User: Fold these one by one.
Assistant:
Number 1:
Amino acid sequence: MKNAHLYETHVKTKNLEEAITFYQKLELELAYVIPDRVAFFWLGDSKRKEQMLGVWKVSSDEFVKSHFAFQVTFEELVNTPKYLAEKGIEVVPSFGLDASEPVVHAWMPAASYYFVDNDGNSLEYITVLNDEPIPELGAIHLSTWTKAQENR
């Protein structure tokens, strides 16, 4: 199934109503709710029904934080801090780097900003860069990546 695409992913929440509010702030379209149990959101164009996110209510004992990433364009990534700030959401440090600019995962390469939902699940906006990987650089700020590309 090499050509399979991820259709659906799930995260857990301790408060479904707060989670619904949070994900709607990110402009995800609410697809369906089973009250006090789960909310499903369409990712991307809801008419195409290509991807969805499920947010499941669980007890504190069952709760485990998780992570997933939204793919965005480079322009959207650059605007992420402003976009999230307008919604009362902060970008957070990642991989030991502050959130002053995107973090590049040099092995891919891809640039990212990280943030958390109301339950502390790790979320990411990511864009794949059209450069050759330099894995030995690890995780670095975008400005450092740009300088490394200029010096190649």
Number 2:
Amino acid sequence: MTRVLVVTSSILGDHGQSLGLARHFQRLAEQRGEIELTIRDVVADDLPHLNIAELSSWQVAEEERTSEQRELAAVSDALIAEVRAHDVVVLAVPMYNFGIPSQLKAWFDRILHAGKTFRYTENGPLGLVEGKRAILLAARGGKYAGTAMDTQTPHITQLLGMIGITELDTVYAEGLNMGDEIKEAALNEAHNQIEALVAAL
């Protein structure tokens, strides 16, 4: 049994193209019968931006935390435990102003936790989350992949690599706001790539 965590981050609800890619992945995975899925919608979760109170709670020994600090620290701990419990992390990501949604950044801010998912060494950071792979399902109104304007993919690659997830497959659905013909072709190609990835799980 392969355990897959699907993280969605569209603010457009049912109209989000990245959510549509995630749901296509989900339907195919459920048909397989050998895949256990967990869906986390970081928009519905409404994680706040990381602040000093929450960050500081991580630095206090567990037995010395106040009740408020325990509650704050538990957020990161739960999200990290969820990632560790799965074999594959699927990120369904729209592009907003060349970056990732702030809600997804808030999720990453709690996943990248020094001492738990990475540690600093003389040779630089060392990821502590081992044996995982990731799949990026990227939906974009324009065409950016492979150009200097795609700052999103390197950012996600670096964030995942920081915790030790270096195997990343990417599926791009681009040009979705460039006319119906381009949109249909892009979604069909993305669906085909998703089908191949699910079949290989």
